[in-house]
Amino acid sequence: MRDLASSESPEQDRHGFPVRRGEIVALDLRDTTLTSAQAKGFAVIERTPLAALNSIVTRLSIPKNMDAATALATMRAIDADGAFDFTHYYAMQFATQGSGAGAKQSKIASRKGNLKIGMIDTGVTAHRVLNATSLQQRDFGDGKASSPTEHGTAIASLLARDGASQIYAANIFRGNSAKPFTSADAIVRALDWMVGQDVPVINISLAGPRNKILDKLISRAVGKGHVIVAAAGNGGPTAPPAYPAALPNVVAVTAVDRKLQVYRYANQGGYITVSAHGVDVAAAAPGGGIGSYSGTSFATPHIAAWLARCAKSVNSTTRSKCISALAKSAKDLGAPGKDEIYGLGYIS
């Protein structure tokens, strides 16, 4: 994570996570707070209305010769009740190539369905396994360089396999193909688009630090009845919690192999909700072929589709019932009851 977004010369927060240099971000900034901030040398870079989430995100440039950490502390001193944070950077949940077992398949068996699912990931390219799927895409990157599409195309194919007939794909990544990255402001714009499209279940493939602005907006989306499903992370058993998966109102998914053994690079922790097959998964690959992939992000689409079969519309009561049903359907693995490796258990 520390060398993420190196092309944008980031600073670091106190935990060592990269943040955008020279700015902080505010949610629903009060006019009086802005006036006080401007008196201290802060200035508005951009104000982004999030119509579906009924919010405004404001990017503020910080005073000359002030670092981001000091700027954040200054804004919190001006308005102790305000919501401020850094513009954190986030990494894509890169997959590892599987053993090749999945790639031996010439096609992906699909399940009939009429599911509407959103995905916040890379872009998606045309592929034969998506021919019967209605795909709507929007780019929330910087518009200067195209990001790789392999991951997003593979995830879309897995959603389609499990019955997604409508996929809303938000491309939030930018940077070079070796290490694409995104930022908190791109994520919240993508989330607002999903909410505006009434997408019941949203699949997220990214990992990074906790961010107050992202926390609050995910909570608003969940409060409206949207189900957020996120990859638990591929940092390994000793890695810190990966966000947004580690938020209490997000369904965090880890990966297991065909023998129901946990993926060796999967994060572990009390935030893990359930596990699903995510090792040597057959998914769409570049050039129209089928590849073999492993990672927690390749387990997540199965859970997103499972929940979408239950939650066919955006509704808070339905959301709660469907998550409860998911928990009851889990096959206990590992230590009895919920544990830090498999969560509540395996969803077939």
From TrEMBL:
Q: Which GO terms describe its biological process?
A: proteolysis
> Does the record carry Zinc-finger as a key word?
no
Signal sequence residues: none
Return the PROSITE patterns for the record: SUBTILASE, SUBTILASE_SER
- Active site residues of this protein: D121 (charge relay system), H151 (charge relay system), S297 (charge relay system)
Show where the Peptidase S8/S53 domain sits. Answer: 114-345
Q: Which UniProt keywords are given for this protein, alphabetically ordered?
A: Hydrolase, Protease, Serine protease
- Identify the SUPFAM superfamilies for this entry: Subtilisin-like
One Gene Ontology MF term: serine-type endopeptidase activity
| A Pfam family | Peptidase_S8
Protease as a keyword of this entry, yes or no, is: yes
Q: Which protein family is named in the record?
A: Belongs to the peptidase S8 family.
What is the recorded name of this protein? S8 family serine peptidase
**Annotated source species:** Sphingorhabdus contaminans
